[in-house]
Write a structure and sequence with these properties.
Largest interface: A-B, 44 and 44 residues
Radius of gyration of chain A: 23 Å
Distance between the termini of chain A: 30 Å
Oligomer: homodimer
Shape of chain A: globular
CATH architecture of one domain in chain A: 3-Layer(aba) Sandwich
Number of strands of chain A: 26
Strand order of the largest sheet of chain A: 2-1-11-10-12-13-14-15-16
CATH topology of one domain in chain A: Rossmann fold
CATH class of one domain in chain A: Alpha Beta
């Protein structure tokens, strides 16, 4: 099984139907297949060989879809960059992956000098925007125009399909290696689960950033069933409302922060979203109130919550539209999809009785191959054949999973995962900081926000703004503390470990933790 | 991904729901999981080790389901025997597979002496019937009762799941090796295709023999979605009608021969089959007239035609319920499912233009691992990465496949494949036969029937009955010629090859070939 199969199948069955709609630009499946095969030939011409990593740093577009197909078609490995990271972080991931070819669009062309300086291995840049091609870069359109179609390399099954970077518990991003089978098993297994979230020949709106595995999973799911990818460059409420109305969109994936912004917009400027059949959400908690408001604006839609993780390619459980009708289940992450086996285990990896809190572990064909070049972290995460999610949860008698906390020290803010350790490392490097702890606290807009508790060095001074600026120069904006408290000492355990639960307790006492 | 996952998932999510209904015997998913784990432990106690083949020769039952789960749970490989074969053929397949353990039920206990005599490697027989345990056999129920549950061996992915014997073009059956991934990809891919043929928490009636890959595929498809297996020992029209009514069946798989017998029965003794949502058919042609009659008796059902082949685990294309509404498509085999890429190629394996007849070839994650111990036949069948079906067909502009002939010399009669070469080899061994050719001719009851054209040796005589008896002593009844013509000479090509097309032409001139 291979992710290019979707392109073969739709090009044979619906050659004249739209594959991608991006603004006014519509490309049919026949055109898309032809362009992908030419772009793959272009990559071969640049020396891209079997198993090479090819990176992309771009907003959403129809060319992002072509990238995702052409790279495996050429026998190579997609390596999407997080567009919210700063150049230092992106350079780290580029270097770690060993990519020598990078696709970049207009929005990120300005970062090229910094990336080139930081990544000597980066020899080729392909410009996939609509503006002028930057100096020293090749053009995506030229590659398509000047090459004859290449045959599909047919990488498949357990072959590496992509490396997807996520925040690391130890401070550096890790590359999650997913195979063709991983991605397809998650998509097919979720599709075969009651309440599968794509309709035949429907139109999926890609508004969430396409570097994100949740968006790539939606792209795979729509692709294998057929239909159309409707793409907007990035999430904005007016762009999403307009695309849904104009292009008869049937499904949309939104994180709750986006859903909240969209609903607020729609309350001011109503739009007819009656064509939408499925709204898929996940990645951070959603409140009852937001769900109720959203249901009003999507009168024909079922809501599906997916509990996802990059390492699971990505779906482990879903709360189906039918499940949403039961108020006692609204705080649940749902039940294992067809393609995943889910258990709750204790510290010795023994399954606990129903209702008991333990770590959520997952097994099945969608579990990652491992972390790129990190055999020890891979072995630890996959010990005993199960992916250890780092989430604490319980399971009821019917198999519904309720996430109660995170064992890993991670914050989910606006749909992005932030590892506290990474922020703490940066903060601790500030000369005025003697000790610090970074936690997630509830936030109406972001689900959680990054909050720092800081102990200043004797005699030193620093303001919250100074500390934020210090962080912003080194890590992505969404990772920087949005609020800072100063204190004389951090609460510690007898063994000297910071008791983050004590720091979090006052913030969370009255809030639903919900599901990330 | 592993076929036991269905058991894990349903035991966690719906422990008290019925897993199997067999007559008055109902077992829940919790009971089924417990019994399977105990039976697997029993197999370990008998020395069954990783990768060993374990065979079964039995009518359908709830214990057949337990066999299909317990064997992989124990780390071994299921090896179902065709219940229509005679002991010589079964002994061939048992010996070829190297199985040392055989499950057998009451219906086939009488063949044990012959099988034991022919298969010295067969050391252990497990009786899975409800009658008395035959001499020298162990009892399925005793194994369950006397063992503690074993943990799942978790064979998965590309690991061999089963060996499924099919007729061979060269006269001997071949063992088709299918992996866990093969079976699950076909089931999930078909389920994710528009018109997928199982409903959430539905009840699938297993009336077609469970050794058949079509039935096993239905069992996998129902299993991964959850729900209930309703099982009758074998197809009879009253048993099927009664089971559907009594157990609220939602899906049923029938070959057209069965559907015809069922419809004839229902016209005499009406039953309420309104609960059935999907009727899946395949394996031989269906006439417009039969379809129209069947639609009357299944008022709530959509009809799905599956174009299947053991080597494809088994689904390549489906004609969906929506497709059936278009009269121009009723003779089509439908379009590639999500999990398969289908092409029509010429003798050089180059894709032909749409509308041109060529060989149907299939690629994807459901294509078999190969033929057991037959590397040369495997390489020939899978050349270039595509499974060569041996069927001639054409594809229209929308990807619909129309099967027009078989390149392999194969007859499909009552849902069973018969290779002419095998029948010809047996016929030719009769002393009165100088030359012979075996072809399929249209038959109202069987779709096709096996027909022999015989040239007698000079001075010799033989009647059709004598020749049939000769065959029936050596090969399964369904393979024996149902009609025989005598002639002075067979039509041959300049190269001396029998021109079967010329022999078939007069029979097929006015008939639809349809789809097998």
């Amino acid at each position: 099984m291979y992710i290019t199969q979707a392109l073969h199948r739709s090009a044979r069955q619906t050659p004249d139907a739209p594959a991608t709609i991006f603004g006014d630009r519509v490309r049919t499946w026949a055109q898309s297949a032809d362009r992908v095969a030419r772009l793959a030939a272009g990559l071969h011409g640049l020396g891209v060989a079997e198993g090479d990593r090819v990176a992309i740093l771009a907003l959403n577009s129809d060319r992002y879809h072509e990238f995702l197909m052409a790279v495996p078609w050429a026998g190579a490995v997609v390596t999407p960059m997080n567009i919210r990271w700063n150049p230092t972080e992106i350079a780290y991931a580029l270097t770690d992956s060993g990519a020598s070819v990078l696709f970049v669009d207009d929005a990120f062309a300005a970062t090229l000098p910094a990336l080139r300086a930081a990544c000597p291995a980066l020899t080729t840049v392909i410009h996939c925007g609509d503006g002028p091609t930057p100096d020293g870069a090749l053009s995506h359109e030229d590659l398509v125009a000047t090459h004859d179609p290449a045959p599909d390399a047919y990488r498949n099954g357990d072959d590496l399909a992509g490396i997807f970077y996520t925040g690391g518990t130890t401070g550096h991003p890790k590359g999650v290696m997913l195979s063709h089978a991983n991605l397809l098993v998650s998509a097919m297994g979720t599709g075969a689960t009651a309440g599968g979230f794509v309709v035949p020949d429907g139109r999926f709106l890609h508004a969430a950033p396409m570097f994100h595995l949740a968006a790539i999973a939606a792209w795979v799911a729509r692709g294998i069933v057929g239909g159309t990818h409707v793409i907007v460059p990035m999430f904005t409420p007016p762009a999403v409302a307009e695309a849904i109305e104009r292009h008869a969109v049937t499904e949309v994936l939104l994180v709750p922060t986006m859903l909240q912004m969209l609903v607020a917009h729609l309350e001011d400027e109503p739009a007819d979203l009656g064509g939408v059949r499925h709204v898929v959400y996940g990645a951070s908690p959603i409140s009852e109130a937001l769900l109720a408001r959203a249901e009003k604006h999507f009168p024909s839609a079922g809501f599906t919550q997916a509990y996802e993780m990059t390492e699971l390619a990505p779906v482990a459980t879903v709360l189906t539209p039918d499940d949403h009708a039961d108020p006692t289940l609204r705080r649940s992450a749902g039940r294992a999809v067809t393609s995943a086996e889910v258990r709750i285990v204790d510290a010795d990896d023994v399954e606990v009785p129903r209702g008991t809190v333990g770590e959520v572990v997952v097994r099945g064909g969608s579990v990652m191959l491992g972390y790129w070049n990190r055999p020890e972290e891979t072995a630890a995460a996959l010990r005993g054949g199960w992916m250890h999610t780092g989430d604490a949860g319980r399971m009821d008698e019917r198999g519904y999973v309720f996430i109660v906390d995170r064992l890993k020290d991670m914050i989910v803010t606006g749909g992005e995962n932030v590892y506290s350790a990474e922020v703490e490392n940066v903060l601790a490097a500030h000369p005025a900081v003697a000790a610090c702890a970074v936690i997630g606290v509830p936030d109406d807009e972001w689900g959680e926000r990054v909050h720092a508790v800081v102990v200043l060095a004797p005699g030193a001074t620093a303001t919250p703004d100074e500390l934020r600026d210090h962080c912003a120069a080194r890590i992505a904006g969404y990772k920087c503390p949005r609020s800072v408290d100063f204190t004389d000492a951090l609460p510690v355990s007898p063994a000297g470990k910071v008791l983050k639960r004590d720091l979090r307790a006052p913030y969370w006492a009255s809030a639903d933790r919900g599901v990330h």
